[in-house]
Amino acid sequence: MPDTYLVLGGSGLLGRYLAHRLVDRGNVVAVLDIVQRYDDIPFYSGDISNDGVVVDVLCKTGATCVFHTVSPLATEAEADEFWKVNVEGTKQVISACLAAGVQKLVYTSSAGIIINGCDINGADETYPIPKKGYQAYHHTKAIAERLVLEANGKKGLLTCALRPSGVFGPGDRVMVAAMYKQYQLGRTGVQIGNNRNLVDFTSVQNVADAHLLAADHLKLPVHPDFPVAGDAFFITNDEPWPFWDFANGVWDRFDQYFPGQRVKKKPFVIPQWLGLILGTILELQGWITGNRPIMTRYVVQMSSTSRWHNISKAKKSLGYIPKVCMGDELDNMVKVCECVSIVDISVS
């Protein structure tokens, strides 16, 4: 009998693609989110961290497979909000799945849970997770992943976790808005670091495909050589780019839609060590004034260190093959955003 699906966070970028993938292949699917942006898929409103919300929706939908994509944005929330949603919310999701007899739970973790401030080159799933995450987002995502994997096998529930890196694609509102703001303010001519640091960015379409593969492979008996249940998998485009090549790729595409808005120049390079000093000063200034600093130590680290991963495990166990390449997805993302007005997105 085919599964019935519930996508938690189905109004978000990944959740939206995932829900549509399920509809396109003929599955029965519903969405649970705190905000409704679309009306073409059955929608339930609710906060997963509130007691009884998830189990109520599970009983109404009869879902047998749950995709948990919910999380505050990595750069937008405070530590207590990350804990409330990522940890307490995930506990509620697990309890609800067990109470409702759900058979499968696929959790959207993050490749960032292994970030430790140093270069990460070709890390696989054996790479250690720091006891204290680099930021509250990473720390709470790591705890949530552990909770989900520990729930595997309880009351017949099968679980797994996917760790995508740098998700982007058509429909993105956050990354595009931030990069368009930098473009408008003329801040595209500054580069932090030497741009030799490779970073994994991943098409949202590829990440959605990986989630479907994970759910389809969550079954008994478990394959002895390529287990999925109780395991975690890095998901990337398998084509890491120098960090600033990605940023410039977006800005260059903006030039196509806003000709003459900027004069492209050779970038002014700030060494990483100097960037960290400036980030510290600007953070202090922001703390004093109450304004968000334009540069932080976190931003410096993220833009000047390597973060790319080995996805052999996902290829072997899930049959995951990235179908959408980086260049095509950048084209798609900027084109779609231009059609709905990047300007409107940047101020919404």
From TrEMBL:
Residues 6-255 form the 3-beta hydroxysteroid dehydrogenase/isomerase domain. GO terms for biological process: steroid biosynthetic process. GO terms for molecular function: oxidoreductase activity, acting on the CH-OH group of donors, NAD or NADP as acceptor. Keywords: Oxidoreductase. Pfam families: 3Beta_HSD. It comes from the Eukaryota. Belongs to the 3-beta-HSD family. PANTHER family: BIFUNCTIONAL POLYMYXIN RESISTANCE PROTEIN ARNA, SHORT CHAIN DEHYDROGENASE_REDUCTASE FAMILY 42E, MEMBER 2. This is 3-beta hydroxysteroid dehydrogenase/isomerase domain-containing protein. It comes from Gymnopus androsaceus JB14.
